[in-house]
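Bit of a strange request maybe. I'm writing a small parser for structure token strings and I need a real example to test against, not something I typed by hand. Could someone generate the tokens for this chain?
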Amino acid sequence: MSALTALCPECETEMSLPPLTEGETVGCPECLLTLRVTRAADGRAELEMVETELRDWGQ
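Reply from user aminoacidic:
Good idea to test on real output. This should exercise your parser:
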């Protein structure tokens, strides 16, 4: 496997990624979102934002 390129779906930052497979996660260096690889083929990866539930600290 070779390196991949991808765009952050939130801030559209172009990223160079190590070889990843579908389901793996990566962080965007610009907006810091956690992203999941939905497809990796032909040197490109498609990413989607991982939904995170924020913890209610009762404040």
